[in-house]
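Input (Methane monooxygenase/ammonia monooxygenase subunit C):
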Amino acid sequence: MSISTQTAVGVADEAKPIVDLRGLWIGLALLNSFYLIVRIYEQIYGWRAGLDSFAPEFQTYWMSILWTEIPLELMSGLALAGYLWKTRVRDMSTVTPRQEMRAIVDNVKWLVVYAAAIYWGASFFTEQDGTWHMTVIRDTDFTPSHIIEFYMSYPIYSILAVGCFFHAKTRIPYFSKGYSLAYLIVSIGPFMIIPNVGLNEWGHTFWFMEELFVAPLHWGFVFFGWMALGVFGVVLQLLMNVHRLLGKEGVALLTGE
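Output:
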């Protein structure tokens, strides 16, 4: 690379703001709008076509979603991981402090969208599923509630977890040097709820247990779900790197000390 080219790249880098929240707001808007549409769909077709799994309308309005979302989610997760790895920073020694600070801010934005996705999946739709079971006697494991909860919302937040982890691994020098235990917990822990779904459904099928949240079959959901609290460790690591980049003078300036 010539000196003039290097200068042009440096000027372009300096022109980019370190904190740009447009991507964050767009991501949150898309995620929340999508789930609001999904919730409206549930309200309309849950009772109308979701009570009898042997009815033709159940296949049309619910099983068609199941067979569509699973391959789409699998391909999306692989494509996202592949893109982040393909466009990774290959030589971390070339990353300037400004670029590193921008990457840290971008990673925080990833984490915020991931947190919103976990709320929808592990809180909103999960609590909704408990209400559904207390209202409707199911005749299949693939209820309308499960098709949205287990096979849509859980994989979506897992895909975002892949994005969070790979972004940090491929853009931030600190995380590129090894594997952050906190980041592994916060990204892999909630994902493990998906295998636990298989255990849960197997248990309900063979033991005909009541849908109580305190039932032993549900303990795995709580155990893996609470691993999302590993985000506090990730945030501490990110703040540690912000402190290193700013230096004592910069931190004192920000805190007013």
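The longest helix spans residues 97-135.
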